[in-house]
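INFO worker-7 received task bundle
INFO bundle size: 2
INFO processing item 0
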Amino acid sequence: MKYRIILASASKRRAKILKECGIKHKVVISGVYEQIDNKKSAKINVLFNAQAKAKKVASKYKGGFIIGADTIVLIGKRLLGKPKTKKEAKVFLKRFSGKTLFVYTGLCVIDAKRQVAVSAVEKSRIYVRKLSAKEINRFVKIAVSDDKAGGFSIEGPGTFIFDNIQGSFYNILGLPMARLNHLFKKLGVDLLEEAS
């Protein structure tokens, strides 16, 4: 049985991941402002944002499954979302150079018909090799995006600077599919069976 699946996210990469996995879906941008509160843990931040996105979109539907997701990068004790400018992206990369980052993604799936929600958080670890100023400038020029937490992608040119991933690769991309499928199973749906 095919279910209506709605992605409450403006992320083109999340939509691409679902498509590549054969999951037919509709994108409905929530318009929710992503909050980052450094006084709270990464887990609490991403869960709050993911739940807010899913709830906002679910309020418009009487059926289907709504996916809310939010990704944050933790370096030391500082939480980072999306860089607002290329200049800020350079600051991020200088901070990342030679360091280990933790990437958190909060997920919330709502069964709009039954008004039931399930949530989870996925955590991955990634090392950034030591970068020169020249490398940072080049990377920002060709690979930085303002729609990704931390401003980076581990795909494409990102493969040159990011290394030693521990945990879900797809979590770092912004949509941990194994964890997402686990949440759907809690709601009685197997995403593998939905794939076409």
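INFO item 0 finished
INFO processing item 1
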Amino acid sequence: MSLPKVFIDGEAGTTGLQIADRLKGRDDLEVLSISPDLRKDADARSSLMNDADAVILCLPDDAAREAVTLVSNPDTVIIDASTAHRVSPEWTYGFPELAPHQRPAIAASKRISNPGCYPTGTIALLAPLVAGGLVPADFPITVNAVSGYSGGGKGLIAEYQGGKGDPFRTYGATLAHKHIPEMMQYSGLTHPPLFAPSVGAFEQGMIVDIPLQLWALPEIVTTADLRSTLAIAYESEAFVDVVGSEPTAAVQQQRKGAAGIVEALDPQSLNGTNGLRLFVLGNDEMRQARLVAILDNLGKGASGAAVQNLNIALGLPEGSGFDGGFPALAC
């Protein structure tokens, strides 16, 4: 029996290179490659796509839409890592942990949209709380997030690696970021969250931070209620870790040799993994909380999620190609 064949369209980009690296050396699939001088040749790409069991698109939105038209083989699975199809009803959202029905839907689909990095943390934190009635769907939500500069593409990467990047840079001032519809649709929100993304002077990693005024909720909700709801939602998930209690020691103690850095809440702490770690920090006396997600923007936020979806779609073990496990918390 032949191995399933996979083609990465856009393998020379940041996400494509990471996916190729994650697939390298696997003996349960075959990776098809295209000659560098044919990467923009539509006929050559189409031939490989239609010969593949699965295609992963690592392209800008418009190029991804165009690439889909090159596939005529009805059996070819397409996994799109761009934003182009994330809220399309004709595509299955590739977040297996989102709900009990999501994993079977991905397994049965030929068109899978990979989640965005910021939405992955946002949706993972909010969806169970909105579905469980702890946070109303129309509650005003603010999402603060910091990503490594690798999420900004080749131009931003070159700027930072050339020593010209700012230590911290906020963006999205028009409040119309392309990730907002995705956040709304899969979190269950009825109003756009106020999304404040930013870039830090580190290559990869991400922290998503959602403040909640518990006193403004219509029902009495404690940090333990929030944490318990998230823990139940993800209790059987290998790639999602809900921290069981507030990491008090880690919050109060500074890491030796790196003053001011809290190890447990380091946005780079899950780099190189497909892990997503969730925290509920709060003060029940003040009736305030912070929902925090940490992930690798190029891992669970991009290439790791694509490989996880690929495994599900091809009927391979979901953990294939991953080392597994989470780094220990310094709590």
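INFO item 1 finished
INFO post-check item 1: The longest strand covers residues 206-213.
INFO post-check item 1: Residues 117-131 form the longest helix (15 residues).
INFO worker-7 idle
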